[in-house]
Amino acid sequence: MEPHTQVTTDDLRQLLGAGPTARLVLVEGHLSIDLGTDNGDGLVVVTREELADSIRDDLGDRALAEQAAISNSDIRLRGA
User: Is 14 exposed, middle or buried (0-12, 13-18, 19+ CB in 10 A)?
Assistant: First the structure.
């Protein structure tokens, strides 16, 4: 994953393909996928479980784009 600060549909697809405890985190201005084994550094944007619950079985571009927009809004609201 290249360093970036905006959540993309690709980020969310990678998160869904990661382990059950995976989460998308923002660390020092860059997004990354944490497999849930780290000590919790960074801001948790969304967990794999939360994402799976919110999109259910809809893995289409539109559903993922909506979730990416929600995550980006959440990041801004948190002041990150």
Answer: middle
**What tokens appear for 45 in the block?**
């944007």
From residue 18, give the alpha-carbon distance in Å to each of 33, 37, 39, 51, 52: 8, 12, 18, 12, 12
- For the record, the structure tokens of 12 come out as 């969310």
For residues 54 and 48, give the distance between their C-alpha atoms in angstroms, rounded to a whole number.
Answer: 10
SS3 letters across 13-65: HHHHHCCCCCEEEEECCEEEEECCCCCCCCEEEEEHHHHHHHHCCCCCHHHHH
pTM of the model: 0.85
Higher-pLDDT residue of 58, 60: 60
